[in-house]
Write a structure and sequence with these properties.
Blueprint (H helix, E strand, L loop, with lengths): L11 E2 L4 E2 L2 E2 L10 H18 L2 H16 L3 E2 L3 H20 L13 H19 L11 H13 L4 H24 L8 H24 L1 H20 L19 E6 L6 E7 L1 E3 L2 E3 L8 E2 L11 E6 L6 E2 L5 E6 L5 E3 L7 E3 L8 E6 L15 H6 L9 H8 L8 H15 L13 H7 L6 H14 L4 E8 L2 E2 L4 E5 L3 E9 L3 E5 L8 H4 L5 H22 L2 H32 L8 H16 L10 H6 L9 H15 L5 H17 L1
Antiparallel strand pairs: 1-4, 2-3, 5-10, 5-18, 6-16, 7-8, 9-13, 10-15, 11-14, 12-15, 13-14, 16-19, 17-18, 19-20
Helix pairs in contact: 1-2, 1-4, 1-5, 1-6, 2-3, 2-4, 3-4, 3-16, 4-5, 5-6, 6-7, 10-13, 11-13, 17-20, 19-20
């Protein structure tokens, strides 16, 4: 056998044999059936309409079509495959993400599934360039890759949805026509091809028609999911409704990071002063916002730095006694001053929002959120809703603190609620007003009920009080830092005390606060967060870097991958030029070697020097290709020759296979 101990495999090969003056491709270089390429191009068009990744997909479509213009194919070598994958897939996704912008109106960031679809599209193109036997194990993989890409492309907006009416049936038609073409040397009757093709055509049209007819219901369902996502992203509802459960307790999603946080763990998001029909208002959408003018920094002020970790959060969460908020960069901050806040940013850009919160100094004038209530505001903070059961008001007066000061009344109400009611994540509100039922029936419920009840009882005692929703910061985030998660969402009350200002009133029992309910973070979740941080930093660098910086890093990456491949190719060519031969095999294998060499010679296909038997058999012209069992014998021989010493059974099987080849020749 004429070959080398480390068989050289060039990364890209073209057929060397000619027949009748025309180049004949190897058996493994035959093109995939044309309907597979047509289905892929239709899938690319659908994905371009939905994602807007026109540049990437036009390049991929051109690469796919070029595979029909050139016979060259790259070999099935790990280093070659992965080098090309990184270059092609990386280029396609990189070109898309560099210009992609998150749609703030969407409840899910579609850049991620579109990036995955682009990866599949790039892999699909690479499959067209691989040297793979027609009908091989990976051949049908191409049409199923195109199906995945097309499925991702079916999320087109109204601007491109009408085109899917035509693309869907066309894709199904080509998809069905492509499948029989992957069967090697199979003659499929025309009827057996047309029947499923027509069925697929009808199925594709019916599927798209169904989506079109019921698009209103599907959009409504998506809107419900989107509203839930918005609520979860904010850590609260834009208008709290007293319901049966508090679902955010299970969410480990990170929301904020606080550096130098100070001593107040209550991060105030929104306040509400109007209660009607188990709902607190005014709703976030109904508030009037105006630009917030950031005051100049004061000498010696204590500043906490807040980093937003969830780009779906628009509100700025700050302690009650804050003097000022300063957003980093050019971010615009808005303030709903007439409705006791809140503060928010105008957009949810992907870059982390960073803002500084200056704490109010003792005895300083009222700050951002703790100004004394005016006439109308004070009236609202003392209003008792008509749906509250009169017996609840009697409970308040029964505490015996009507003639006491506000601090005493607050302490009495908190003590009453924490001893009268227990904490529970779920509750049956019952018929009628849920606050009245909670107090009178001594129900167990979550923080929203305790906060709402504290507001009503304190108003009954003449203390202006409002409902507040936000976060309770408690998790250690490193040196002088705290980490806030969705599960830290909380509700409490704020009461006005003359001469003191607004004070925080948390009537929820200690066992029901987020710091008491929080369990340990699983290691796998922390690992996932670490991966998110790395990917987020990488994406921010890609978006913020110049094209020269991006191109330089990408060139270094490609160069690092190609240098080993070039060295491997050079070594293979150098050794092949020397014409090295294997060392003498043992007696049993030497006999098999000689017999197989003679067998090849009799067929007029002697193996040239510097080439292994499997390489030689794979590179034979299509018109002289030998059956697959020849290649299988050559591979088993190589395993016996260069692997662990073969046993008697292995040698006996090789001898039997060779006799079968000799008889067949």
């Amino acid at each position: 056998m004429n070959a080398m101990t480390a068989p050289p495999v060039p990364p890209l090969t073209a057929p060397a044999a000619t027949t009748g003056g025309k180049s004949t491709p190897p058996s493994e270089g035959r093109r995939p059936p044309w309907p597979a390429a047509a289905a892929a191009l239709v899938a690319f068009a659908a994905l371009a309409l939905s994602s807007g990744a026109y540049l990437s997909l036009i390049g991929l479509a051109g690469g796919l079509l070029l595979s029909y213009a050139f016979r060259a194919r790259f070999e099935n070598v790990n280093l070659t495959k992965w080098t090309l994958r990184i270059v092609v897939i990386g280029s396609a996704v990189f070109a898309y993400l560099a210009g992609a912008v998150k749609d703030d109106s969407a409840f899910f960031d579609m850049r991620y599934p579109y990036s995955l679809a682009l990866m599949m599209a790039a892999e699909l193109v690479l499959q067209f360039w691989r040297r793979e036997p027609t009908g091989g194990a990976r051949a049908p993989f191409t049409v199923f890759l195109s199906a995945f890409v097309f499925l991702c492309g079916c999320s087109a907006t109204d601007d491109g949805a009408h085109l899917l009416w035509y693309l869907a049936p066309v894709f199904f038609l080509f998809f069905t026509l492509a499948l029989p073409g992957f069967l090697p040397r199979a003659r499929v009757p025309l009827a057996l091809t047309l029947v499923p093709a027509l069925f697929a055509l009808g199925l594709g049209g019916a599927t798209h028609a169904g989506f079109y007819v019921y698009r209103g219901a599907l959009n409504a369902l998506g809107g419900q999911v989107g509203s839930r996502h918005l609520s979860v992203s904010m850590g609260m509802s834009g208008q709290p409704i007293l319901g049966s459960s508090f679902t955010l307790r299970d969410s480990l999603t990170r929301v904020l990071r606080l550096d130098h946080p100070g001593t107040d763990p209550y991060l105030r998001g929104m306040t509400f002063d109007t209660y009607a029909g188990r709902t607190w208002g005014p709703a976030l959408d109904g508030r009037r916002f105006q630009p917030y003018r950031t005051p100049a920094p004061a000498r010696g002020e204590a500043v906490a730095r807040v980093t937003r970790l969830d780009d779906g959060v628009t509100l700025l969460f700050v302690p009650l006694h804050s003097a000022a908020v300063r957003a980093e960069g050019s971010t615009s901050v808005e303030w709903a001053a007439p409705s006791e806040g809140p503060l928010r940013v105008e957009s949810t850009a992907a870059d982390p929002l960073v803002y500084d919160v200056a704490a109010a100094k003792p005895a300083a004038p009222p700050g951002l959120l703790d100004a004394a209530p005016g006439g109308d505001e004070r009236a609202r903070d003392l209003t008792l809703p008509p749906e509250i059961d009169p017996r609840v008001l009697a409970k308040a007066h029964a505490l015996g603190v009507d003639e006491s000061g506000p601090e005493t009344k607050i302490a009495a109400v908190v003590h009453f609620l924490q001893t009268n009611n227990a904490y529970s994540l779920t509750v049956n509100p019952g018929a009628g007003d849920p606050i009245s039922n909670f107090i009178l029936e001594r129900k167990a419920a979550h923080c929203e009920y305790f906060a709402s009840s504290a507001v009503i009882l304190l108003r009954a005692l003449g203390v202006p009080t409002r409902y507040v929703s936000g976060y309770f910061a408690h998790e250690d985030g490193g040196k002088d830092a705290l980490l806030v998660r969705q599960r830290d969402a909380h509700a409490w009350a704020e009461s006005w005390v003359a001469g003191v200002g607004w004070v925080t009133v948390d009537a929820t029992p200690g066992g029901g606060r987020p710091d008491a309910l929080a369990g340990a973070i699983p290691l796998w979740w922390r690992a996932w967060e670490g991966a998110q941080d790395v990917l987020g930093a990488l994406r921010r660098w890609v978006v913020g870097a110049s094209w020269a910086e991006r191109g330089g890093v990408f060139a270094l990456l490609v160069l690092g991958l190609l240098v080993p491949q070039v060295y491997r190719f050079w070594q293979a060519r150098r050794l092949a030029g020397r014409g090295f031969r294997y060392s003498q095999a043992d007696a049993a294998l030497s006999v098999l070697t000689a017999r197989f060499e003679r067998l090849l010679a009799r067929r007029g296909l002697p193996c040239p020097a510097g080439r292994t038997w499997p390489e030689h058999l794979r590179m034979l012209p299509e018109d002289r290709a030998l059956p697959p069992r020849w290649l299988e014998f050559a591979r088993r021989y190589d395993r016996a020759r260069f692997g662990p010493p073969p046993g008697p059974d292995t040698l006996a099987r090789l001898a039997a296979d060779l006799r079968a080849l000799e008889k067949g020749s």
